[in-house]
Write a structure and sequence with these properties.
2 domains; Rossmann fold; about 15% strand; binds phosphoric acid mono(formamide)ester; alpha/beta; five-stranded parallel beta sheet
């Protein structure tokens, strides 16, 4: 990769996305070996800085870094001096002073990763920033692993009918996927209640609807999104029950998609809300493939950013 940081998919070209996905395919081969270890990033130091909870993203970045033989360290709010009021800048510089050369950051504020990137090279330390989810802004590696999963199951992404359903307003996963899928030529439909469909998406080359059954009709890919209750400051829905009835994906609704459609969810799932148990665990679900691909994609990103550097 020619870039220093991965902050979002908005400024990543289709060619670059394809290169990352191709590298991730090679990384999947490494992960299928009995001994999952390559020396590619020996001597590099990757630090995960998570200011919000995570299972998949954090664990998979750590697995990815370790598989590539990078040294890893990990900070969370509760167990670091962030809980005593230390700023993002001071936390970054402190860890950089210990030798961290790449920070994987999850933060509740949109733009926090861009701010973090602005500190690189400014105070005598040179480091990479990877956005692991910032507020409602972007979650680029989730977007990439979703593209990889679609490509694996469907071959070409261009021309596929992809329907994204749920809380698009608060979802950073949605924003990264919208950028990635449009760049790769998908025919995209966004569906959700009026209060959770950001009007600015209407400026893009996609369809928007409040009718879930209509949105799913003939889809190749159905992607459900979690209700981001932690980011809702106000009342966006009459009730979760009503949302589940109108926008929840169940077997009856999924039948409207193509018979070989795949069902995706970035996780964590609110079972019985955005997706019912039977389809979450059913034959069309690729949710756990998405998780597996997360490790390969994060290996590809870390390798792309750090791999060509001198130690
Ligand atoms: N999809 C996702 O970001 O999951 P985590 O919050 O568990 O990392």
């Amino acid at each position: 990769m020619k870039r220093k940081h991965l902050l979002g998919l908005a400024d990543v070209s289709a060619t670059e996305i394809t290169q990352i996905l191709d590298t991730a395919e090679a990384m999947r081969e490494v992960l299928s070996r009995p001994i999952k270890k390559t020396p590619a990033l020996r001597g590099k130091s990757v630090c995960t800085l998570f200011f919000e909870p995570s299972t998949r993203t954090r664990a998979s970045f750590e697995m990815a870094a370790k598989t590539l033989s990078a040294d890893t360290s990990s900070l969370t709010v509760a167990t670091s001096s962030v809980s005593k009021g230390e700023t993002l800048k001071d936390t970054l510089l402190t860890m950089a002073a210990m030798g961290a050369g790449c920070f994987v950051i999850r933060h509740p504020s949109s733009g926090a990763c861009e701010l973090a990137a602005s500190f690189s090279q400014k105070f005598g330390y040179d480091f990479h920033i990877v956005n692991a989810g910032d507020g409602c802004h972007e979650h680029p590696t989730q977007g990439l692993l979703d593209l990889l999963t679609i490509r694996q199951h469907k071959g070409e992404i261009a021309g596929l009918k992809v329907t994204m359903i749920g809380d698009l307003l608060h979802s950073r996963v949605a924003r990264s996927n919208v950028h990635g899928l449009l760049k790769m030529g998908a025919d995209l439909t966004l569906c959700g209640p009026q209060t959770l469909l950001p009007p600015e998406f209407g400026l893009l080359d996609l369809k928007m609807t409040h009718d879930c059954d209509e949105a799913i009709e003939g889809a190749d890919v159905v992607m459900t999104l979690r209700l981001q209750n932690e980011r809702m400051n106000g009342v966006f829905l009459p009730s979760v029950r009503e949302f589940a009835a109108l926008y929840g994906i169940n077997a009856r609704r999924l039948k409207r998609a193509k018979s070989d459609a795949i069902l995706m969810h970035p996780g964590p799932i609110n079972r019985g809300v955005e997706i019912s148990d039977d389809v979450a665990d059913g034959g069309q679900s690729v949710i756990l493939n998405q998780v597996t691909n997360g490790v390969a994609v994060r290996m590809a990103v870390l390798y792309g950013l750090l791999g060509g550097e001198e130690n």
